[in-house]
UniProtKB/TrEMBL annotation:
Belongs to the helicase family. Its EC number is 5.6.2.3. GO terms for biological process: DNA recombination; DNA repair; telomere maintenance. This is ATP-dependent DNA helicase. Its cofactor is Mg(2+). GO terms for molecular function: 5'-3' DNA helicase activity; ATP binding; ATP hydrolysis activity. Gene3D superfamilies: P-loop containing nucleotide triphosphate hydrolases. Pfam families: PIF1. Keywords: ATP-binding, DNA damage, DNA recombination, DNA repair, Helicase, Hydrolase, Nucleotide-binding. Transmembrane segments: none annotated. It catalyses: ATP + H2O = ADP + phosphate + H(+). It comes from Arachis hypogaea (Peanut). Residues 59-216 form the DNA helicase Pif1-like DEAD-box helicase domain. It is an enzyme of class 5 (isomerase).
Length: 217
């Protein structure tokens, strides 16, 4: 079933490879439950200790960003943030602190990055293209390959926060594809507003513009 799911993201199915056995149909609610469980499978005692230890050594700038974003998440104040700073200013530290705080509350935070190396530094981190099913050959008309009601859609619906690291490293069309996807998924949510980006989901982008190449007109 997992292989068939991966093939679907590339427009293929197991039927395209006759020697392979076909997946047995399983209730999609079981798949959804597994996907959700994987994202909240954290030890709360460890998370509590991590939050306490990390808050004790935050800089004033980190604490300001942390408080501002967490308030947006839990006070129903929509927020779209960009955390900007040059290398070694503690952006990864901030992502981990916010993730630990949200896991402590039993909620879901989705950590993605535009590069594989950066994703390894994040709790349950994934490549953005993989996590949001963004086409590799992106255009202004591209959409994420996530269908409403699917396990991935339900995960996005339940997520309290999306953190996207190495944000300047990808095309703006990637963000537009996610914006359209979340707009479709969040329509059934009571907090949905068509006038706000990302379906009123709280999203944090971050990284350093000094680390990208010059743009050639």
């Amino acid at each position: 079933m997992d292989i068939d799911k991966i093939l679907h993201s590339y427009g293929k199915t197991l039927k395209d490879y006759p020697p392979m056995p076909l997946a047995t149909e399983v209730d999609s609610s079981l798949l959804t439950e597994r996907v959700i469980r994987e994202e909240i499978n954290f030890n709360k005692d460890d998370s509590n200790k991590n939050v306490s230890d990390m808050l004790a050594i935050t800089t004033p700038e980190q604490r300001y960003a942390f408080d501002k974003i967490i308030i947006a998440v839990y006070c129903d104040e929509w927020g779209f943030f960009f955390v900007y700073g040059h290398g070694s200013t503690g952006k990864i530290f901030l992502w981990n602190l916010m993730s630990a705080e949200i896991h402590l509350r039993g909620d879901i935070v989705l950590n993605v990055a535009s590069s594989g190396i950066a994703s390894l530094l994040l709790p349950n981190g994934r490549m953005a293209h993989s996590g949001f099913k963004i086409p590799l050959n992106i255009t202004e008309d591209s959409v994420c390959n996530i269908k409403p009601g699917s396990p991935q859609a339900m995960l996005l619906l339940k997520a309290k926060l999306i953190i996207w690291d190495e944000a300047p490293m990808v095309s703006k069309y990637c963000y537009e594809a996610l914006d359209k996807c979340l707009g479709d998924i969040m329509r059934c949510s009571p907090i949905y507003s068509k006038d706000l980006p990302f379906g009123e989901k709280v999203v944090v982008l971050g990284r350093d513009f000094r680390q990208i190449l010059s743009v050639i007109p």
